[in-house]
Amino acid sequence: MQVAARTEVGHVRARNEDALLVAEEDGVVAVFDGLGGHPSGDVASATAAQSLRESGLTAASSAEDLVAALQAAHHAVGAAADGDPGRVGMATTAVVATLAGSTARVAHVGDSRAYLLDVDGRLQQVTEDHGMGGYITQALGLDRGVEPDLVELATPPQSRLLLCSDGLSNMVDAADIGALLGAGDAAVACDSLVEAALDRGGIDNVTVVVVAF
Ligand SMILES: [Mn+2]
Predict the structure, then answer these.
(1) What is the pTM of this model?
(2) What are the DSSP E strand ranges found in the chain?
(3) CA 184 to centroid of ligand 1, rounded, Å
């Protein structure tokens, strides 16, 4: 298994409010996107990433443990905002994968996505966005709470998993994502995807994690 990851501020935004987690030894990868229009999006995404890192989550964890780790991250973001006027309402998307040999579990809230490129080169969007047109209905830290979606995937040798923020999926269409995800090794694919988002304008922060099985 090869893992490559990269995050870029892009050409327009002043700050990078995305965050990523690559804990290859634990078999855990994740992407977070602090919500625009809310204060301290960068703090929200970093807080969620740190909470996941410290959660004890591994490739051997159960589906329940994965959802519980996201719930814990939700509470961590809320606690980090508590009593701080500059952080009230801060929130972040999350897409998290645990990688156990030929299967992976993916849990998410918000509009950060997972895609699977199967051994025949077919791209499948694994996650369904919570919200559309920039309005997010679920995010870690939002008062209404979160109900993460969970899927289990077959990840045989030669398949590839992509986690990304909407700075990729809004800039690069699915056909191009599939072609770039499949070309070269994981590091090449990761760089090609990020560069494609930047070449097409880079109007948002862009974050990409590629896992080649
Ligand atoms: Mn974004």
Answers:
(1) 0.97
(2) 2-8, 18-23, 28-34, 92-100, 103-109, 113-117, 123-125, 131-132, 135-136, 149-154, 160-164, 206-212
(3) 26
